[in-house]
Amino acid sequence: MASDKELASLVTADPGLPRPNPTQSYWQHIPHPLANTRSESLPSERDYAIIGSGITGCSVAKTLLEHHPTATVTVLEARTLCSGATGRNGGQMAANAGEEYMHLAEVHGPAKLQGLRF
């Protein structure tokens, strides 16, 4: 297990720049009309600056504007909207969900799996 010092160095390490030419998901091959939305220049002042336009970044921007309609909010994105992890890893499909459920039911009992959804 990593020490507190090792964990602190990992958390504070410079993440570096985004990778050049990342993998593009097939659903991004025809970009959404808003994907390349950009401002001509960055504002010198903002109430809020949000790094990343994924699910979390866009949700935070939406919530801020709903609760503070006069706030100035800027979302910063290295590439196109939702081109990071949100756009690449939005969901997984597995053909063995039924088999897995049966295995879990045997191990834990069907009562414990009442609320589980695949």
From TrEMBL:
FAD dependent oxidoreductase domain segment(s): 47-97
Location of the region described as Disordered in the Swiss-Prot/TrEMBL record: 1-23
A Pfam entry, by short name: DAO
GO cellular component: cytoplasm
InterPro entries, per the entry: FAD-dep_OxRdtase, FAD/NAD-bd_sf
PANTHER family: DEPENDENT OXIDOREDUCTASE, PUTATIVE-RELATED, SARCOSINE DEHYDROGENASE-RELATED
The protein, known as: FAD dependent oxidoreductase domain-containing protein
